Amino acid sequence: MKLFRSVATATDVSPNWASDLISEGILPSFGGGYVGIGALRNSDVLTAVSIIAGDIARFPVILTDRITGTVINLENVEYLMNTKVNDRLSAYQWKFSMAVNAILSGNSYSRIVRDPLTSEPAMFEFYAPSQTQVDYTDPTKIIYRFTPYNSGTTKICTASDVVHWKFFSYDTIMGRSPLLSLGNEMDLQESGISTLQKFFNDGFKGSILKAKGKLSAKARRKIRTDFEDAQTGATAGAPIVVDETMEYQPLEVDTNVLNLISSNNYSTSQIAKALRVPAYRLAQNSPNQSVKQLSDDYVQNNLPFYFRPITTEFEMKLLDDDQRHKYAVLFDTSEVAGMSVDDVVKLKSNGVIVGDEARAKIGLKATGDPDMQKFETNLNTIFLDQRDAYISATKGGDSNASKNKGNQNDDDTDGSAGSDNGQASND
Questions:
Q1: How many folded domains does the chain comprise?
Q2: Assigned domain for 118 exists
Q3: Which residue, 323, 338, 353, sits at the end of a domain?
Q4: Which of 156, 178, 159 is nearest to 168 (CA)?
Q5: Which stretches are tagged as biased composition: Polar residues (predicted)?
Q6: Is residue 97 part of a domain?
C-alpha cells in the first residue's frame, strides 16, 4: 500500500487518509492499535461493540412528561430519533454508527440541519471522527469543523448545532475510548493466539538434529539450513531421511501450555468488564443466575451508562428551554425489561398509577382522556384512620336494618290481627 500520494490523486481518496490508516491499525498509533476501527479485528471487541451499538439502535427513544410520566408525541423530534435522519440513513443505521464511533474512538458527531423558518431540527448529517475537527480554544464557545471526503468545503458549526456523543470524558469536551485501558489484555490475547497458530503451523517440526563431530556455529547453521531445505514440501507425517552422520530426535510438546492458552479467559472477561457487557454474552461462564436476571441487570445497571449521555444530548440539542423543563427523553426498554401487563394492571387497579401511566409502562401513548388521569381503587380496602368509623357505620347500619325489619314484622302482625278481628266481627 502506498503511503505517499501525489497531489494529482489527492482528490480521489479521503483527505484524512493518514488518520484512517492509524485508526485501522495499519500505521502505529499512541494507543498501540487497540482503538479505532482496527480494534474490531479482535472478536471479543467486535462482539461487545455490536451488542452495545445494537441495543442503542434498536430500543426506541421516547419523550415523557416530567410530572406525569406519560408519553408525549413531539412528531419531528421523535421521527428523527426513531425513523429517519436524512435521505440516506435510517435512524437505526445512524444510531448504530454513532455508537460504534463513540466506543471505538471516544467521540461521534452529527451536524443538525435546522428548518430555516422554525429553527426546529430537520435532519442529521453524520461525520466520521476523521472528518471532524473540534476547536476548544475557548471552552465556552466550542467550534466544530466538518470536512466531507473528496471535498474542499468545510462546514463550521457551534456546539448547539452538533450532536456529539461521548460516553467517557474527563474534561467535558472530548470523549475517551474505554479500549485505551485494554491494550495489555488485547496484546495478551493476540500473543496466545499467535502461539497456537505457530504450534499448528510448525509445531510438529520441532526437533533436535545431532551431527557427529565438533561443529562451529557456521557449520551448525549450514547443516540446519540444508536439513530444512531437504524437508521443504513434505506433508505432515511424511518420513524424514537422515544419513549415518546425523541423529534426528523430535521434541515433545508440552500440551499443558497449549491448554492454558486455549482456556485463558482473562482477556475476554476484562474486555466485557471495560465495555460493560455481561460476560455470558461473550461466551463466558456466568454466576448462578437465570438469563432473564442477567438481562435485566444489564439493561437496568449497564446500559444506562450509554443511554444517559445520549438522552441528555438529545434534550440539550433537540429541545428548546421550555420543552426541556416539561419533557424528558428516555430509552424505552419495556420490550425486554419492562413490567408485565398483569403487574401494571395491579398497580392501576390498586390506585398506584393512573391509566395513562399504565399505558406508558407497556409502551403505549397517553390517550388524553380525563378519566385516564384519575386514580382507581376498590371497596375492599380503606384507610386505617377511617376503619373505626367504617366499622361503626357498618354496625349501625346492621342495627337499623334489624330494627326496620322488626317494625315491618310488627306492622304485618298488627295488620293480620286487624284482619282477623274484622273477620270475626263480620262473623
A1: 3
A2: yes
A3: 338
A4: 178
A5: 397-407, 416-427
A6: yes
Range of the domain at 406: 384-418
Q: Is residue 121 classed as helix, strand or coil in its secondary structure?
A: strand
**Of 363, 144, 168, whose CA–CA distance to 275 is shortest?**
168
For the entire predicted model, the pTM comes to 0.70
Average pLDDT over residues 403-417: 52
Q: Please, what's the b/e burial string for 109-134 (b: 16 or more CB within 10 A of its CB; e: otherwise)?
A: bbbbeeeeeeeebebbbbbbbbbbeb
Which helix (H) or strand (E) segment holds residue 143: the answer is strand 143-146
Residue where the block lists cell 410520566: 69
CB 58 within 8 A of CB 128: no
Helix, strand or coil, per DSSP, at residue 93: helix
Dihedrals phi, psi of 103, to nearest 5 degrees: -80, -45
State how far the Cα of 82 lies from the Cα of 95, in Å rounded to an integer. 9
Amino acid at position 249, single letter: Q
Position 368 in a domain? no
Tell whether 178 and 305 lie within a shared domain: yes
DSSP character at residue 363: T
Same structural domain, 211 and 324 = no
Whether 246 and 318 share a structural domain: no
